[in-house]
Amino acid sequence: MTRLELTTDPSAFLALSGEHLAADPVLTTVIASVTARAVDEDARGVRPGGHPRWWVSVLDDDDDDDGGRVVGVAMRTAPFAPYPAFLLPMPDEAAVALARALHARGEVLGGVNGALRPAQLLAEETARLGGGTVVVEERTRLWELGDLVAHEAPGRLRVAVETDVPLATAWWNDFGELAAEMAGRSSPHASETLTEDEMAPRVAAGHVWLWEDPDGTVVHLTHHNAPAYGVVRVGPVITPRQHRRRGYASAAVAQVSARIVAAGHRACLFTDQANPTSNKIYAEVGYRPVVDMANLVIG
Questions:
Q1: How far apart are CA 10 and CA 4, in angstroms?
Q2: Each residue's pLDDT tens digit, 139-157
Q3: Which of 67, 181, 196, 295 could serve as 113's disulfide partner, Cβ 3.0–4.6 Å?
Q4: What end-to-end distance do the CA atoms of the chain give, in Å?
C-alpha cells in the first residue's frame, strides 16, 4: 500500500526522498536540481511567489523499512502557466491518488510533465474529476552523455560575464519561440522566463557559456544547471536564426560537456522529439537516449 507525503518545504522533501533521487540521478535530474535551487532560494530569502510550490514523496508502507520506502516522487514548482506538475515513475495507484488529493483540496491542475505513465494517469484522473480533456503538448527525450565526440566551429567558447546578462536574458526568453519554430509548431509552449536579476546569479556561478565567432560576435548560448547528485543538466542551448548551420551548437555543447565530465560529473539534457536538428546534434556529440517523457495539458 502506498501513501503520499506532501510538503511545501524543499529541505524536508530532500530529507525524506534524497536517497531515492540519488539512486538514479540522471532520471531524477529535474526534480533534484529544481529542489536544490529552491533550498538555496529559501536560504537567501528570495523565494519566487505567485505560483503553486509543493513536493510529494510516495511511500510504500508494506516495505520493511521503518516509515516506508520512497517509491516515487513528484513536484509542482513551475513558475509559468499552466504551472504543470512534474512526475517521475511511481505506482499507478499513487498517481491516481495524487490527482484525487489535489482535486479534494480544490487545487486546479492545468498540466503534467514527466514520466509517461504516471503523468498520463494523473492527467486523465484530473480531467475525469473536473470534466476536462488531456492533450499531449510535447514529447520529450532525456539523454545522457556516453563517449564524447569533439566538434569544431569557427571562433571560441567563453564563460559569460556580468556584462552579458542582458543578452543572455533576452535570448533565454526568446528560446520558446525559437524551439517551436525548429519543431514546426505554430506557437511556442509555455516556458520559464527570467529577469536580468534572475539571470545574473546563473552567470556569476559560471553556468552560462557563449560562443564567439572569429570577429568576437556572440552567436550562441549554452546553459547548464548546478550539479545534483553528480549529474549536470545542459540546457537551454540557443542559437539565433541568423547564426545557425555553422556548427556553433555542436561545438559549444561538446566543449561544455567536456568541462562537466572533467569536473567529475555526468552530463544529461532534454530534447523535444519533434525537433530533428537538436536530436541529431546531441547524438553526434555522444549523447544517448535514456527515457522518453511528455508534457500534457489538461483543459
A1: 15
A2: 999 999 999 999 999 999 9
A3: 295
A4: 31
Among all chains, which residue has been given the C-alpha cell 552579458? 164
Count helices and strands in the chain by DSSP H and E runs: 8, 12
Angstrom distance (rounded) from CA 135 to CA 295: 9
Average pLDDT for 248-254: 98
Helices (H), the chain: 10-23, 29-44, 92-104, 116-130, 165-183, 196-204, 248-262, 276-285
Please state whether beta strands 85-87 and 156-159 pair in parallel, antiparallel, or not at all (unpaired): unpaired
Give ∠ CA 25-276-154 in degrees, rounded to 5: 90
pTM beyond cutoff 0.85 = yes
Q: What is the DSSP letter of 299?
A: -
In the prediction, which pLDDT does 181 show? 81
- Per-residue pLDDT for 220 more than 90? yes
- DSSP, res 108: -
Which set of grid coordinates corresponds to residue 75? 513536484
75-134 pLDDT per residue, tens? 999 999 999 999 999 999 999 999 999 999 999 999 999 999 999 999 999 999 999 999
- CA 103, CA 130: separation in Å to the nearest integer? 8
Residues 6+ apart with CB under 8 A from 94: 2, 4, 58, 71, 72, 118
Is 217 exposed, middle or buried (CB count within 10 Å of its CB: 0-12, 13-18, 19+)? exposed
pLDDT band at 65 (very low <50, low <70, confident <90, very high): low
Residue 214 is predicted with a pLDDT of 97
Is the backbone of residue 127 left (phi > 0), alpha (psi -120 to 50) or beta? alpha
- For residue 198, which of 223, 165, 221 has the smallest C-alpha distance? 165
Do residues 165 and 171 touch, judged by C-beta distance below 8 A? no
Residue 143 near residue 282, CB atoms below 8 Å: yes
Tell me the backbone φ, ψ of residue 269, rounded to 5 degrees: -165, 165
